[in-house]
DNA sequence: CTGGTATGTTACTGACCGGTAACATATATG
DNA sequence: CATATATGTTACCGGTCAGTAACATACCAG
């Protein structure tokens, strides 16, 4: 039988190449147990491979951590773009959809806050390769928020954006200590009130 | 010369007993570098003592971590009591003073967020001796806020309290990724606006 | 078939970790 | 002085960590 194009896949459980399995496994372990709590050997084994293959794809554990965060940032960007397509020319609907999404996310008992923010806590070294990924992600997040608030016609878009930013950031970190039933559970309502309050003062 | 009471101290640089030095040193190192990043040997050496003495006072590193957090929670309680004495029968002034205090705290470039919240990120294990300290601290913090909001005469004190809680929690974690000049710098103004907004809807 | 490339396997290094044993020293109190 | 208690010192244990060397195997392209 002639070899077909490798694109064909019998089922959904195609075995990904080792690099993908390593990143996917590392993502789950890093997020659930913390970055410093997970060793490279455990990652390689859980990914169905070994340490040597891991180090053939990543120069160091720190680089794997950076890649882990880079993927999350990319996924977040995709999510934002999806919001924009779902509510075209309706920035306020985008804002509310985002609030609702974070509220749902926070209510998941398996969630442990923003992986990027957690990484910032675990890696205080300013020259860690992950630091710039974290900072750029948060800047992008804030800029996205500011843009939406401005498009909504708020008088002080930066102020509302920062309020929402802190609210969301606080909700995700708070869910780790007070649980999903804590203050974070009413996030959507709080955000709506904030937006309405700013719209009233136009 | 007869031995005087040991209470007399020639100057401010009295050498504290080893246990105090260990806790103080551990507090600084844990906060600055993260709990998992600091070894017991480094703590003992920086405290001017040794590992054996450390383990004569603390059953394990985890217990030292718990004590570190317990002290911070106690300090926070003292601070709250001070606010109450500084502004007796004026809950709104207490709220504003607290907001201002956190804003100042966040603007300190050496700050790295709430030590309790950071510990929750670093220690996800539910049976870690530090977890209950963290949870009780956050519950107390929230209850204190709710009490102040209720005393202020807010229609929905729980809602405002949770909004302020998330705002403050978000400000401290956000300062770690976006720096002291980020959204957290306008915390006081945001909180005042929130309070005013709730007072208007009485 | 052949040769290059990606991967698997095993064993290893050197460093650090939390925690302990055994013994020496100081200090304060009787 | 004598005794008890707190502290210092050194060395060690078993385990884990990040990272590497050397070699074996698979696989895919020519």
Count every beta strand of chain A, where a strand is a DSSP E run of 2 or more residues: 0
Q: Which spans of chain A have pLDDT < 50 for at least 5 consecutive residues? A: 1-12
- Helix fraction of chain A, binned, reads 55-70%
Number of helices, where a helix is a run of at least 4 consecutive DSSP H or I residues of chain A: 9
- N- and C-termini, Cα separation of chain A: 71 Å
Q: Let me know the largest β-sheet of chain A.
A: none
CATH class label of the largest domain in chain A: Mainly Alpha
Nearest-angstrom radius of gyration of chain A?
20 Å
Query: Which two chains have the most extensive interface, and how many residues on each?
Result: A-B, 47 and 47 residues
Q: Mean of residue pLDDT of chain A? A: 92
Shape of chain A: elongated
* Order of SSEs of chain A: HHHHHHHHH
The name of the CATH topology of the largest domain in chain A is Tetracycline Repressor, domain 2
Write out the CATH superfamily name of the largest domain in chain A.
Answer: Tetracycline Repressor, domain 2
């Amino acid at each position: 039988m002639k070899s077909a194009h490798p694109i064909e896949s019998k089922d959904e459980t195609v075995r990904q190449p080792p690099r993908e399995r390593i990143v996917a496994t590392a993502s789950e372990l890093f997020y659930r147990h913390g970055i410093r709590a997970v060793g490279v050997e455990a990652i390689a084994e859980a990914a169905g491979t070994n340490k040597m293959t891991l180090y053939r794809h990543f120069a160091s554990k720190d680089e794997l951590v950076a890649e882990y965060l880079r993927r999350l940032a990319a996924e977040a960007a995709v999510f934002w773009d999806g919001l924009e397509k779902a509510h075209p020319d309706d920035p306020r609907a985008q804002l509310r959809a985002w609030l609702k999404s974070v509220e749902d996310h926070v209510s998941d008992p398996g969630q442990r806050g923003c992986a990027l923010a957690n990484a910032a806590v675990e890696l205080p070294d300013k020259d860690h390769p992950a630091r710039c990924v974290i900072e750029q992600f948060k800047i992008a997040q804030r800029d996205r928020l500011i843009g939406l608030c401005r498009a909504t016609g708020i008088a002080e878009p930066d102020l509302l954006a920062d309020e929402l930013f802190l609210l969301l950031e606080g909700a995700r970190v708070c869910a780790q200590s007070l649980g999903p039933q804590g203050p974070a559970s009413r996030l959507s309502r709080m955000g709506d009130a904030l937006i309405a309050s700013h719209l009233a003062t136009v």
